Amino acid sequence: MELILDPIGGKSWKQSYKALRSTGRLGMFGISTAAGNGLLNQWRLLKLIVQIPFFHPVPLMHDNRGVFGINMGRLWHEPEKIRSWMDKILQGIEGGWVNPQVDKVFKFEEAAAAHTYIENRQNKGKVVLIP
Question: Which candidate, 129, 109, 5, places its Cα nearest to that of 67?
Fold first, then answer.
């Protein structure tokens, strides 16, 4: 793949990196693996820290791949940049060159089930609600 945007973190970043083609880029913008509360979340966080890959520049150059990270919470002062990114993504969807992977589709009346599906980390792509 040319571009992978990975909001999951941990070992998912390793898997995403391996799926890149030559000159591909991995964008990391979240760590949903660490989401949650309580003792279970502390265990997840520790596990996440151990699983986070270290990206050294020499292997990146050797593999002809790139890695970058975005912290959206620190970009509030750059709304024009975020708007331009969103415009480009929407153009890609309209043009057919951005194809989000849809994991499962739920009807609006099944919104609670869709939310549970996401909370239980069952999805491997986007969850869509339809009227």
Answer: 5
